């Protein structure tokens, strides 16, 4: 994502420093060329931002796959009945990351990719990417919940800020906000279903212990 952001800065510089976009009275380029160059710079920035956001999200996939595989720790802990099927998460997050990329591109082009609002978004995005390694990799369920609270807090500032700069950019983040609220509720419920003495971070051990207790009880009853 850092590489994508640097690339976007170059696109931004190209877009605003191009002589074809100035108001020189005697420009050697025809009007059609000016329009073509101006329009071409918009999808280029959007493409870089969108791909960068999606590829950043993909970095957490190995950790998620390892945790959710058959026999993995996530399969052995208590989950709420309203937990979505695993197949739902990948397409949902791919769509949401794509929308984030478009929103960031629009705001970056309007306010600058090094502006305070853009930097706040990059912080939020980095926090978002940290959730999967913390939850599925480190199995620190409570810490992951705190990350979700941090995401909601920063997003509550970002959406109005984006909206003020570009209303479409703000609107593109609303589905993400709704999903984040759901994910936070799910994370909180999982914490309540799997309490541990050491900060909800021993889910694997607790699940294994629960299994042993159930087997021991079944053996005693037989």
UniProtKB/TrEMBL annotation:
Its record classes its membrane topology as: Multi-pass membrane protein
Q: Does the keyword Protein biosynthesis apply?
A: no
Which superkingdom heads the taxonomic lineage of this protein's source? Eukaryota
A Pfam family cross-referenced in the UniProt record is TspO_MBR
Q: What is its main location?
A: membrane
Family of the protein in this entry: Belongs to the TspO/BZRP family.
What name appears for this protein in its UniProt entry? Benzodiazapine receptor
Q: Which organism is it from?
A: Fistulifera solaris (Oleaginous diatom)
């Amino acid at each position: 994502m850092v590489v994508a952001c640097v690339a976007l800065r170059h696109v931004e510089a190209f877009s605003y420093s191009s002589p074809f976009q100035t108001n020189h009275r005697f420009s050697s380029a025809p009007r059609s060329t000016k329009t073509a160059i101006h329009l071409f710079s918009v999808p280029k920035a959007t493409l870089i931002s969108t791909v960068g956001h999606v590829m950043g999200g993909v970095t957490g996939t190995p950790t998620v796959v390892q945790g959710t595989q058959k026999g993995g720790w996530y399969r052995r802990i208590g989950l709420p009945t309203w937990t979505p099927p695993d197949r739902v998460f990948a397409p949902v997050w791919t769509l949401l990351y794509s929308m984030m990329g478009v929103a960031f591109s629009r705001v970056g082009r309007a306010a600058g990719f090094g502006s305070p609002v853009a930097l706040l978004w990059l912080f939020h995005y980095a926090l978002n990417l940290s959730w999967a390694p913390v939850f599925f990799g480190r199995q620190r369920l409570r810490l992951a919940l705190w990350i979700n609270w941090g995401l909601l807090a920063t997003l509550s500032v970002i959406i109005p800020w984006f909206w003020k700069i570009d209303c479409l950019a703000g609107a593109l983040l609303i589905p993400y906000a709704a999903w984040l609220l759901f994910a936070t509720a799910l994370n909180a419920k999982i914490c309540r279903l799997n309490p541990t003495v050491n900060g909800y971070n021993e889910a694997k051990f607790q699940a294994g212990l629960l299994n042993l207790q159930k087997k021991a009880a079944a053996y005693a009853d037989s």
